[in-house]
């Protein structure tokens, strides 16, 4: 008699869910044996690509990573318990399948990435062992409840008959949120005064029709969401860039007055490879150093000095080994001295000054973080000139291999990011520090340095500035409602700009208390889910255990419910990663997959199909 299959339902079918599925399939022979399992993924969007990477979005929207830096398959560097299953990175897949115009260092459209992700999903499904079947339901899950024998009943938006499962995993990806705090106040102000307010959201999903041609629009945020917004409101409305680097408007563009806390856009991606050998990483921020930290910890006080020193190690390793003519010491001598001095204090500063003659070759993380911190501008023309010069200098440096030490710093940043789950999982950071410094400042700093757009997007930004489409506001921009309009001003620049429209060019922060997701709202309202708190400080995330189990309001871990993603305690930010970096997403997915498979094996009873 054939055994009834146990059933696993994964809510979400985007890259995060696909990465989990790859690890489920890889680990199944070891942990399931011959036990039959039926896996059902529930998502209204296409499997593999999901909502964010779906094919039906503007072909003008690009990835912000080079094709050779994107893979869905863990390679030999990834330290996991389960077996590795090699597969092609994005550019290798393109070469094998004949996808057009994809080279290793190209920035492909999200439509091309959608094709890769869909192919990965199909390959993983086809490679499942015979006892594991995988199907997809194109619907939206709105509620999960305990049924008879603790079976999980997943209610869907499009049918009255719930799905039954032995185990359920929430892999919801990036979530929309209802406006709270300042966003709620500005939204109410806009409604009361007939203004247009666009709260934080995924840019490709925005209805931008309300932004009229040649209308003055305030834009807060200069990161990746801003880049997408500009693309859709310029080229997306018929404008085009000429061969001489200028922009020819279509006349349908609004005038964008843009600013942020730093006042400058994210740094461009580098256009070169390392000139020397990669630095041995981690060196100052690895498992040994993290475990040696005794809590309670403050991120900026206790952890940042180790991280900064690690970034400096990557930077100076490349500078000394690839460009020794710009240093006065052999690398080995500098490295030995650098290892002995703390990050803060005069000893490191003096060492670097004696070994690196040119100031432009010295790593200054404070200046990188706040490049306009001490700037003061006499008038608006000075603001525009300074911002264009800053952006052009950044593009030039990021395309000049003489400054390949910047790439060494970037690779050290990636190493740090891979180690942070060990720190977060230890529970030694204070609640305030985790929310304000780790989730807040550090994530913003990392994105600013490492997650910027291709360099040509910043060149286009300068062209838009010269064409009068983009107007820079400066740093420390404050926006408020005054006399029935929105008003923006900078503490460093004199211009005050008023407008009838305001766009928040950023994704919403994780907030399970304000989530727009119906399923998650129900979990929270019923007490089946709870917001993570650290030292009584709410983090905005869904509380999950170290094995990714959902925790209820009584502190109990549900044995049959799991959740993964940026919105959970695990903080898994990326679903795909750079090859050969022991990337954290693969390690998290492997741990979660093994926990889920173990729960399936240990489950009592089986859901009926």
Automatic annotation (TrEMBL):
The record's Pfam families line, in alphabetical order, gives: NAD_binding_9
Q: Which InterPro entries match?
A: FAD/NAD-bd_sf, HpyO/CreE_NAD-binding, L-asp_N-monooxygenase_NS-form
What the entry lists under SUPFAM superfamilies is as follows:
FAD/NAD(P)-binding domain
Q: Where is the FAD-dependent urate hydroxylase HpyO/Asp monooxygenase CreE-like FAD/NAD(P)-binding domain?
A: 9-174
This chain's protein is named FAD/NAD(P)-binding protein
